[in-house]
Design goal:
The chain is an alpha/beta fold and 794 residues long. The protein has 29 helices and 30 strands. The strands form five sheets. The protein has an eight-stranded mixed beta sheet. An eight-stranded parallel barrel has the order 23-24-25-26-27-28-29-30, surrounded by six helices. Strands 1, 2, 3, 4, 5 and 6 form a six-stranded antiparallel beta sheet that branches. β3 and β4 form a beta hairpin. The longest helix has 22 residues. It starts with a strand and ends in a 6-residue tail after the last helix.
Amino acid sequence: MSYIYWLSQIQHSEQHLVGNNLFILSQLLQHECPILPGFVLDHSLSKQFLADLDHEELLVAHLPNSPSFSDSDRFLIQSLIGETPTLDSSFKSGNPPNGLSRKTALNRSLALQLIAQRSREVISQYPLPHLWSTKIFQAAQQLNSDSFILQPLVTIFDRQQESLGLWRSYTCNNNPQALITALKKVWSELFTASSLLYWHKLGLSIKDVDLAILVRPLQPAYASGIIELNSDVARIKASWGLEQSLLQGDVEPDEYYVDRATGYILSRSLGHKNYAYQLKNTDLNRPSNDCLEAYLPDETHTEKYILEQEATAKLLQLTQIILDKQPQIKYLVWTAPEIEYQSLPQFCFTQLSDRLPAASTLLTNRLAQVLPSSSIPSLLNGVAASPGNILAKTVIVEDFDTHPVPIFPGCILVTKSIPPHHIALIKQVGGIITETGGTTSHGAIVARELNIPAIVNAVDATKILQDGIEILLNGDDGKVYPAAAWHLSLHHLPNNHLLSPSFPITTKLMVNLSQPESITKVLDLPIDGVGLLRSELMLGELLTYQFFEQRRVESYRLDFLNTLTSSLRQFVSAFAPRPVFYRSIDWYAQDSNPILGNRGTYSYTLDPALFDLELEALATITAEGYSNLNLILPFVRSIEEFEFCYRRLKNIGLTSRKSFKVWIMAEVPSVILLLPEYVCAGVQGIAIGTNDLTQLLLGVDREQIEFSDRGLNANHPAMHRAISELITTAKANNIECCICGQAPVEYPDLIAQLIDWGIDAISVEPEAVERTYKAIARAEKQMLLQKVRINQPE
């Protein structure tokens, strides 16, 4: 069996054995790019080793027979390893005993910890074949190093999905026993408690996972760091010593924003670099798997920048050489070997990926952040609805329908409100100020999606501000300042830290979208798909009174159908195979009550013409072979309304497609009581819409800020009970449950409760993805730690 591949020699035919990232590293090294050399232990080695353990009945596949496990624990173990449960009839039906759901069983800390502990023990104790040990050590000797680092790269083959940085690397000295111990430690990473949770959440067994290992020399470094790339700007992070301090999140690195076109530093910020790693001297006659030691850089180093202009320009130049050959790369880890004082560092790269490992908000404008002076009073105050700052001239539009005004690109639009059918007008503006509305109004939602600074509820804005004057709009504090408050500072860029997800999340994180222009901006975020595709905002230009009056005219029908089909195709093709949940049109007349009017699926029963056009577009997309498109029905008031819609779905053939899921919005309180009946009627999942649910449950208008200020908002105890009940009922009826309202963003403490209640997915707007990821990771880690501390089952 051939399982050792030198990084400098991997061929195209061997790519499937090592994974895409390692193959790309090899190609770059073969083209003499500055890539640190090494060799790869391919997927087959770990597969064969684990297969041998399974054959000897030592691995987790045979643990359920142990009397140490309860029936529910055995069910969990078998589901984790991809075995069909065989204990009794209740298991054969897919239901755990005693009414426990899989989520409940998964949280049984005893079972989870025993699996992880026992599996790692077995791996560490089982001897490696002598031939393997000999060949691997012989290969390591050719690296001419006293120490090595073993880096795992995990691939989920059928999804073509590779994970970077989610699993721990291990070090060892140049000793055969130490090398084999490190190798087994890397394999054991597949069986940690957090890894098992991760596989279970993805619906995978260990057999579905491929693990290749890059073995490379561990060399001294005076500095190391990360490069993140977008189209215009590179963000470079740098820290002293080896890369582990930065990758593990031990330090706050220096950060540099560099113009990719010129190589000039646009901005830099000094980090807190008081901790670093260096190589430890070890006795090669004794095995050691601890080859790093921490040290404290002296004060002269902690208080100065690691890289200067010439060094960053060289690093960017080397990066460009890689991009010329692999333009899809967006993330690189670099290291700089120890150098003589004042000489220019020599850089090389150790890791790369075409996707950022987690959410990273990169600089998209070459100007620095606006810093309004506290000494200058504001002209106008409102409610911050979309973050960011802009200096531009105003365009006052008091009424879009009766007083059309040319809106030039980059202006600050000042208006009373933005009706859904005029949403398209704001795509080109630089900032938005509205007199009415709240943070969940249509304009605010689209502004956040398109990264347009916005303020809402700015009373009398159209009267206080003059048309054509230059103002500073601060979407962070909800205030408007005169132009004199504009201060450019190339030393105060947004400090948006890249996530270091050492704890991978198992709760699905999805994104709410409406504009095709947003697709490219979110594809690299760590999201599991589109949890809410808002039709009204996507089709706003078409949903006019004229269209609704003439929607049966063939020309109007074709225009609508072509526009919707084209837009849907953009979303599903870009996100495939990740799911896209399209919410059908929830339109109501502008002169009617938006809460109690003829909206949602009730309007379909009155006149299904528009809904039928939507279904025709959905059917067209699915017929083209896309299997990731799904439907959410809005504002469902009754079982009869859902059944009416379901019959039309069935007639057009959508329900016969197993991949096509039909959900409903859970925003009318009656859904809480009737959810089991909805499931019997065909509902396959629910999306909790906290915006409308809050209004109807608490009897408030979400656009009136004073209600929220008094505690009548989505964080109210009554809302907590309602959401908890929806999640619990969904679990009991084996359907998925997602929350897609604004509540998790406005009240981040709610996220921990959502996870505790068992939510399957959280869907937020693009600008909230990074902080939501962090909140989910913290909550899941805390939950796991609490379970680990429990020695007995609950």
